Amino acid sequence: TITNAKMAVDPANASNLSSGDVPLAQLGNVPDPDLTAQKADIALLAFKTQANGNLARYNLVDQSVDAFEDASGVNSGASTNATRTSENYYQGFVAGTDPTGGTITTYTGYKVHSFLSTGNTNFVVSSAGNVDVLVVGGGGGGGAYGGGGGAGGFRTSATHGVTAQTYVVAVGAGGLGVNDQVGLVGSPSTFDTITSAGGGRGGTAALDGGDGGSGGGGGYGSSGGDSSPTTSPVQGYSGGDGSGDVAQYPSGGGGGAGGAGQDSQQNNPGIAGNGGIGAQNLYRTGSNVYYASGGGGGVPDGGGYGSNNVAGTASAGGGGDGGKGAYATDATVNTGGGGGGAGYSATYGGMTGGDGGSGIVVIRYEEMAFGTPSNMTLVSESTTAQAAPTKGDLVLTYTNAAGTAVVGTNITAEYSADAGSTWTDFGIAAGDVQGTTGGHTIVTKNNVTLTSTSGTSMRYRIKTLVQSASLATRIHAVSLGWS
C-alpha cells in the first residue's frame, strides 16, 4: 500500500495538482454559487444603460430586463389600464378627453395648446384637470422721435385648475407705430382669471411714454411710463426717461417683463436707452424662451441733431431696435415685444416707430392630466428559458406620482413559467425595498420557489392597487430572473 505520506507530493492539497481531471462525481460537496446579488446589480446596470442608449429590452441568459424605452416588452392584451408615457414609465390610467383649441404640439411628458392668432379662440375642456398657463399681452408701438414701446404684460399660472366648460382665450394685438406721433398701446391677452395688459406706447417729443404691462419709453424731454395695473408677481417694468437735450434728442427704452427700459444719455453724442430685457418661460417647448422685451429708443441722425448719436437696441424677448434718423424695427410676432422708437431724419423729417409684437397664450398639461388614475395589471411578453426553472428573482423600480405606495399592498409582483396561465407570487413587502437609484425606489426579491405550473415561457405580472387621485404609482423598470 502506498500512502499519501510516502508520496513526494501530497494530492490532498489542491495547490499541488498542476494538471489532470477531477471526476465530476468527486465534486458533489462543492456548493452552487449564489449569484442573486449579481443578478440585481446587472438589472440596475441594464436599467441605466437602456435609458442612456434608448434600448427597449434586454433578454439575457436566465434574465429579462425592461426599462420601458418602448412598449415592445409588455403584452398589451394581457395587461389592463397600463398606460406608458413618453417619460418611459407605466401607470394605471383610464383616459379621458383632452381639451381642444389652438395649435396642439407635444414634448416629453406634456401636451401644449398655443394660441397665436389675435382675437378670441375657444379652449374646450371636457373634464376637470390642472394646466400650466402663460399669458403675454401685445407689445406697445414705438414713438416717432421716440421712445421704445413697452412690452406686453407677462404672467404665468402653474397648476391652474380648469373645469368642464368652454374658455375664451384672447390674444392681444401689438400697438402700431404712427408717423410723427406717439405709438399706440398694445391690447391685453386673457385666459380665465388671468389678464396680461398690453404694452405702453412709446413717447415722442415732450410726450411721456404710456403705462401698460410694461411702460413705454419717454420721448426726448419726457418720462417713461409705468407698469400698470399692479400685479403680484409683477407683469412688467417701467420705461426709460428721454433726455431733455434738444441738440441730441435721445429717447428712453421701453420696459420689459424682466427689467426696466434704460434712460437715454446726453453725452454728446446722445445715446438712446435700450429696451428692458424680457422674461423666460418653457411651457411651449420644454426649453426656456424669452418673451416681452421692450423696444429700443430712437435718436436723430446728422445736421444739428448730432451725427454720432447712438440708437437703443432691444434685449432678448422679441422687442424692436430703435432707429437713428430712420424708421424703427417692428417687434417679433407672438412675443409681446415693444416696437422700436424712431429717430428724426435731417433729410426726411419725421419717421414711424416700430409696431409692437402680438401677444401669445400657451396652455400645457401633463399627459395624464385629463382622465382617472386606476388599478393596473402590467404583464410582460414571454421570454424562453433554456431549461425549466424552479426559482425566480425580481428587481423593480417605482415612483409615487401621488401619495405613498406600500409595497405588498399597493404594489404586488408575480412570475409565471407557462406564459401566464398560472402564477407564483413573489410576496414582496416593505422589507424588500433596497433604497433608491435616480430618485426611483428599488424593490428586490430573490430565490422565490416556483409554485405554479412548470415550463420555460417566462413572464412577470406587476399590479398597482387601490389607485386614485391621491395615490398614483408609476412603474419604471422590471427585471425577471430565474434559475
UniProtKB/TrEMBL annotation:
Ranges where the record places region Disordered: 195-273
All residue ranges annotated as the Glycine-rich domain in the record: 119-366
Bias (Gly residues) ranges: 197-224, 251-261
InterPro entries, alphabetized: Gly_rich_dom
Transmembrane segments: none
A Pfam family annotated for this UniProt entry: Gly_rich_2
Protein name: Glycine-rich domain-containing protein
Annotated organism of origin: marine metagenome
